Each structure stands twice: as structure tokens, then as C-alpha cells.
TrEMBL record:
Transmembrane segments: none annotated. SMART domains: AAA. GO terms for biological process: L-amino acid transport. Pfam families: ABC_tran. This is ABC transporter ATP-binding protein.
Amino acid sequence: MSLLEISGLESFYGASQALFGVNLRVAEGEVVALMGRNGMGKTTTIGSVIGLVRPRNGAIRLSGKDVAGMQPHRIARLGVGLVPEGRRCFPNLTVHENLVAAARPGVWTLARINELFPRLEERRDQYANTLSGGEQQMLAVSRALMTNPKLLILDEATEGLAPVIRQDIWAAIRRLKAEGQSILVVDKTLSELLPVADRCFVLEKGRTVFSGRPNELTADLQDRYLGV
Ligand code: ATP
């Protein structure tokens, strides 16, 4: 059984349809890349999974349980942790407070977070709004991990970050993958995203138009669906 299985998903913003048939699957322990040009439906797909966008048709199953249309807090409790686009840490809480506020019982503890991102331990008592973009992203990832999610979702994992810091984020994702964490990730830098992905899904105008291994995503397909 897949950890996450989306089939035939159609979602709307009011009367305006954004998704027309998204199919996607994340197996246990897999890193899955969700790809597509701007406005093709990646964030809407994620929003549908976490309960922020109400799906009208299709199924979203988490460990076999249909979660389509469920309240966001209930879906979160079933084991979905989100690192949202733009990070959105609590600006007026310290690093420590941000982490503690998110904590739910499980294998992820402050000690383990400190080991994953030693930088955050150094910044423990700093307010989140005083952190660099990279540090805020580390905090956003850590905060999601502190909820001990079965599925970690990163929307625009490295957007706006300097190349060196981006490598820190990818290194963390690789390490999480090695530890068996299931991950769904969106990122614009294909050359960095594809090597960490076990499988990828490409959206075009709200539909899944490709799914397969990264090495099956040929230059032709990349040109057709992901070129600028
Ligand atoms: P990006 O990389 O730019 O974030 P995306 O692939 O995540 O793009 P979505 O943000 O999911 O794409 O957008 C899918 C479609 O839904 C687009 O046509 C977009 O204009 C529309 N859309 C997104 N958010 C809203 C909203 N809040 N209200 C109405 N339409 C929206």
C-alpha cells in the first residue's frame, strides 16, 4: 500500500478549476519530485493533500484512508508535515519556541534536529525573523519534522537560497531519505532535484502528464513540460 495515493484529483478555487486529473503516488521511504512549470498546479495539489483546498472529484488516500476534504488539522495529525513555500516560521518566536510549538511525540526530538542542522542550535534563542533565508528554511524543515510526519512535503525546497545553502538543504533531504523518511518535494532546480528523487510526476495544466523514474524524464520531455 502506498503512503500517499492521489487519483483523478480535481480541485477548484471557487468556480475556477485548477486541477483536472492529478495522479500521484508516494511509497514508504520514497522521495518523489512534483514538477511542472509555474501555475501548472503543484501548490494546489499540495493544498489539496493538506486540506487547504477542497477537492471536488477524485481520491486522496493516506495509508489507505481517504482524506479528501478533511480538515487540515486532522490531516496533519494523520502524519503530513508541510514546509510551505516562503517558509512561514513564526517571526516573533525564537528558533527554540518555533520548534517546541510544533512538537508531537515521535522519533524527532530537539536533539536530533540539532544534529541535522547544527546551525539552528547556535541560533536557538534568536527570533525567527532575524534568521537568514537559509536558516529560516532549516527551521521550517525542522518544525515540520518535529510533528513527526509520515510524509514530509516541501513546496519550493530551495527557492531564493544561495547555492551553498541550497546544498545544505539537499544534504538534509538526502540524509532524511537515508533514514527512511518519505518525502514529496517541489523545486525549480531540476539538476538538483532529479538526483535525489526516486520517482517524479509532471503536471501540465492541472493534469499529470508524466510519471516515472528521473532517468525516464528525457531531454525531450523536459523541454516539452519543464522548459522555460
Ligand atoms: P507556481 O510554481 O507558480 O507556484 P504551481 O504549479 O504551484 O505554480 P498553482 O499555484 O497550484 O501552480 O496554480 C494552479 C492554477 O490555479 C493556476 O492557474 C493559478 O492561477 C490558479 N490558482 C492558484 N491559487 C489560486 C487562488 N488562490 N485563487 C484562484 N486561482 C488560483
